[in-house]
């Protein structure tokens, strides 16, 4: 039987990122994300519910989150669900928690004005990080290779 575990969330950070390092030196970042859902009742009354999600980021993605994210900042996270289980040391009961292991991250909204991490521009776009297509943080676009003419042997028709 096939399995698929993919989560895509857009929300606002509920607290500043907490970055720490494992004994082997890998960065780990814990985030709290609030995801809002708005809906209307039959009578037209509007309601909103908030779901709070714990997210864990690893390696360079964790360091980027620690550098650029702050409480309240909107962010898009793609990742997978993971269920952690443990025995509570105080009560001895089994405990479990569902959380998201982030694999990619896109910063949303405009950049903050002033303060750390400000690169001097604003706008409604975002910046994506993670996976094998992580973008450079420099403001200049990466250099492009000059176009070359295809060899006659490479033309597929």
Tell me about this structure.
With about 160 residues, the chain is mainly beta. About 5% of the residues lie in helices and about 45% in strands. The chain has one helix spanning about 60-70; strands spanning about 5-15, 20, 25-40, 45-60, 75-85, 95-105, 125-130. It has a 5-stranded mixed β-barrel with strand order 1-3-4-6-5. It is globular. Mean pLDDT is about 80; it is low at about 115-125 and about 130-150.
Short description:
The protein has a domain at 1-29 and 51-109: Nucleic acid-binding proteins (OB fold (Dihydrolipoamide Acetyltransferase, E2P), Beta Barrel). 6% of the residues lie in helices and 45% in strands. The protein has one helix spanning 59-68, and strands spanning 7-13, 18-21, 27-40, 46-58, 74-87, 94-107, 127-130.
